[in-house]
């Protein structure tokens, strides 16, 4: 975004159109001293060297009275060359701007600390609107040329008529109402005076009496004017053409510009803690709408977050409570700048050191758990086994008591077989804890199975 | 420029027209009322070409008149700035001349008449070139360009120019 061609355009336009603009009212007598022609050019030139500027500062720089400057700027605002912004702000808010200025104008440090007044002052800021200036100048040139050409060719001009008696004005569109029945002239509606065609404003000395000679003279004059215009404004037109395809420098609104200036400075200086208070008061400093630069402030917030993230990480490393998974650390590495690389590496090392520990722990824990589980299982199993054996013993006892009924009912042959076998296995029972006298063959048979289990 | 458009109008019909040919009466009255009128928005209504539909009549309290909303197709003529028209000169004076293109009145001021044409007063005021080959007088036909229109609610007035290529007299009344 080169600003130089546009500045040249501004300077040319200033000299072409605003050279003899005086901002004094017409009622004031024009003495040599109060003649302030040329101020407009000076102000525009000064603005072309700045971006957004507080009008007070500009007045101070130009050694102008702020009122005079303001009048000039208001004129330019009406001419659409300059955008202005007014806002109520505290001294703090003004400091924000100063900081922004410092960020753009390198070396030129505005350090206006001090009076922290809560009182709000309305400050005005102004800035050249290059895109609009381009359009305005182009339109102006177009209008000038069109006016002259139309006059020259008498094309598309609505003839105006004026009543010499009462000064009432008509144009050709009123012609139907103006024709009188008596003669061939137009007559005034109110005083019935004979209307005369109004002469062109550009060639005022030939009163438009329709004389062909006068007309010819006027044509000559218009042609001269058109030629002069083409010659004198040639540099300006060339500059317009040069600028045509360039993107106009855009500073945005005052807030956006400030926010951007802040961001830029932060990017240059890295993280400066000095800016933090102003940043925190950013939203509070001025009562305007904070919405447009929300995105920009977000960027600043991101810086803060990153820093905080570091802190958190380092804390986690120190305490060792939170062990970051490796993927997270990687991501952090990508985001950080060079200066934070060491911290990151440390963090990574810590993390990698911690991670194996964790995994080992986990593994051993898992193994332990497995062991414990198995032990637990074995214990429970043995307990259950013993219990069952006891139960079986009890059951067999019961069975033994009910042996009669069992026999009567004629249970499964196996049972009977067991019964028969019982005395055989009866001796074996003595080996077991269950020293019940009524141990039955059934139980012993099962016990044998159990023993097999145990052995396995 | 001519347009063929659909317009709507509420027609008040006297009770004496009620009967078999109510519709014919209604259309006849519509034509009488509308044709030749001028509205600023649409221009001059040249002719009604058809009836789109006739809505339900509403009897007015007290009078017995019935109002019908009628939609009708019509041809309108609306002059525009920059349009080229052919017109008949109606009056010539020192200030210029007036011409008519159908219903539209057009004034051409003497500034917008080519510089080589001079006003000649007399019995038959006219603008004549120095060699007398071209003459603009009453009943001449001219081709002109509209450079301005004044559109009122019920009236359209134009100013025109003949100071351009291919504009000016398109027939010679003297030879007719």
From TrEMBL, chain A:
GO cellular component: transcription factor TFIIE complex
Identification of the protein by name: Putative transcription initiation factor IIE subunit alpha, TFIIEalpha/SarR/Rpc3 HTH
Alphabetized GO MF terms: translation initiation factor activity
Compositionally biased residues, Basic and acidic residues: 260-269, 359-369
Pfam families: TFIIE_alpha (PF02002)
Superkingdom: Eukaryota
Stretch list, region Disordered: 260-281, 348-369, 392-456
HTH TFE/IIEalpha-type domain: residues covered: 6-138
Gene3D superfamilies: Zinc/RING finger domain, C3HC4 (zinc finger)
Family listed: Belongs to the TFIIE alpha subunit family.
UniProtKB keywords: Initiation factor, Protein biosynthesis, Transcription, Transcription regulation
InterPro entries: TFE, TFIIE/TFIIEa_HTH, TFIIE_asu, TFIIEa/SarR/Rpc3_HTH_dom, WH_DNA-bd_sf, Znf_RING/FYVE/PHD
Biological processes per GO annotation: transcription initiation at RNA polymerase II promoter
Segments of skewed composition (Acidic residues): 409-418, 443-456
Organism: Rosa chinensis (China rose)
Automatic annotation (TrEMBL), chain B:
Functional note: DNA-dependent RNA polymerase which catalyzes the transcription of DNA into RNA using the four ribonucleoside triphosphates as substrates.
GO MF annotation: an example: single-stranded DNA binding
Gene3D superfamilies: Nucleic acid-binding proteins (2.40.50.140), RNA polymerase Rpb7-like, N-terminal domain (3.30.1490.120)
Keyword annotations: DNA-directed RNA polymerase, Nucleotidyltransferase, Nucleus, Transcription, Transferase
Record has Nucleus as a keyword: yes
GO (cellular component) term, any one: P-body
Source organism (scientific name): Rosa chinensis (China rose)
Domain RNA polymerase Rpb7-like N-terminal: 8-64
Main location group: nucleus
Subcellular location: Nucleus
Gene Ontology biological process terms from the UniProt entry: positive regulation of nuclear-transcribed mRNA poly(A) tail shortening; positive regulation of translational initiation; transcription initiation at RNA polymerase II promoter
Domain of life: Eukaryota
Sequence ranges assigned to domain S1 motif in this UniProt record: 79-156
Family: Belongs to the eukaryotic RPB7/RPC8 RNA polymerase subunit family.
Protein's name according to its UniProt entry: DNA-directed RNA polymerase subunit
Record carries keyword Cell inner membrane: no
Annotated InterPro entries: NA-bd_OB-fold, RNA_pol_Rpb7-like_N_sf, Rpb7-like, Rpb7-like_N, S1_domain
């Amino acid at each position: 975004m080169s600003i130089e061609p546009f500045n040249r355009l501004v300077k040319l336009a200033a000299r072409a159109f605003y050279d003899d603009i005086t901002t004094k009212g017409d009622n004031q007598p024009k003495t040599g001293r109060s003649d302030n022609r040329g101020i407009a050019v000076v102000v525009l030139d000064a603005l072309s060297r700045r971006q957004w500027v507080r009008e007070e500062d500009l007045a101070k720089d130009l050694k102008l009275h702020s009122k005079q400057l303001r009048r000039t700027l208001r004129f330019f605002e009406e001419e659409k060359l300059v955008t202005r912004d007014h806002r109520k702000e505290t001294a703090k808010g003004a400091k924000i701007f100063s900081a922004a200025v410092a960020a753009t104008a390198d070396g030129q440090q505005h350090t206006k600390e001090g009076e922290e007044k809560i009182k709000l002052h309305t400050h005005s800021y102004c800035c050249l609107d290059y895109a609009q200036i381009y359009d305005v100048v182009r339109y102006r040139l177009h209008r000038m040329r069109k006016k002259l050409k139309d006059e020259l060719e008498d094309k598309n001009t609505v003839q105006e008529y004026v009543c010499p008696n009462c000064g009432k004005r008509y144009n050709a569109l009123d012609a139907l109402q103006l024709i009188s029945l008596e003669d061939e002239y137009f007559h005034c509606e109110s005083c019935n005076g004979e209307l005369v065609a109004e002469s062109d404003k550009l060639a005022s000395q030939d009163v438009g009496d329709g004389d062909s000679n006068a007309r010819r003279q006027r044509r000559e004059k218009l042609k001269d004017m058109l030629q002069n215009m083409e010659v004198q404004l040639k540099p300006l037109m060339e500059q317009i053409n040069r600028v045509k395809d360039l993107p106009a420098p855009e500073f945005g609104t005052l807030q956006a510009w400030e926010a951007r200036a802040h961001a830029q400075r932060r990017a240059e200086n890295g993280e400066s803690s000095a800016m933090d208070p102003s940043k925190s008061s950013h939203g509070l400093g001025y009562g305007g709408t904070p919405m447009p630069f929300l995105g920009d402030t977000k960027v600043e917030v991101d810086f803060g977050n990153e820093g905080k993230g570091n802190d958190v990480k380092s804390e986690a490393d120190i305490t060792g409570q939170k062990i970051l998974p490796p993927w997270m650390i990687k991501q952090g590495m990508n985001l950080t700048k060079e200066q934070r690389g060491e911290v990151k590496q440390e963090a990574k090392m810590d993390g990698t050191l911690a991670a194996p520990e964790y995994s080992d722990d986990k593994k051993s824990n898992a193994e332990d758990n497995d062991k414990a589980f198995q032990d637990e299982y074995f214990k429970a199993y043995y307990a259950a086994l013993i219990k069952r054996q006891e139960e079986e013993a009890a059951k067999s006892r019961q069975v033994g008591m009910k042996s009669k009924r069992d026999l009567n009912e004629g249970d499964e042959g196996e049972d009977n077989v067991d019964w028969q076998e019982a005395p055989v296995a009866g001796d074996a029972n003595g080996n077991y804890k269950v020293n019940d006298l009524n141990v039955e063959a059934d139980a012993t048979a099962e016990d044998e199975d159990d023993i097999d289990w145990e052995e396995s | 420029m001519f347009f063929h458009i659909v317009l709507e109008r509420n027609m008040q019909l006297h009770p004496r027209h009620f009967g078999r040919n109510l519709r014919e009466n209604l259309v006849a009255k519509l034509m009488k009322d509308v044709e030749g009128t001028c509205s600023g928005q649409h221009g001059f209504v040249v002719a009604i070409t058809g009836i789109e539909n006739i809505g339900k009549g509403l009897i007015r309290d007290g009078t017995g008149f019935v109002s019908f909303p009628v939609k009708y197709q019509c041809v309108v003529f609306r002059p525009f700035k920059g349009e080229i028209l052919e017109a008949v000169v109606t009056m010539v004076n020192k200030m210029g001349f007036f011409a008519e293109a159908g219903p539209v009145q057009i004034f051409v001021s003497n500034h917008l008449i080519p510089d080589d044409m001079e006003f000649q007063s007399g019995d038959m005021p006219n603008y004549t070139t120095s060699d007398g080959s071209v003459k603009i007088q009453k009943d001449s036909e001219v081709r002109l360009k509209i450079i301005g229109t004044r559109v009122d609610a019920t009236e359209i007035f134009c100013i025109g120019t003949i100071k351009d290529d291919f504009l000016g007299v398109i027939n010679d009344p003297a030879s007719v």
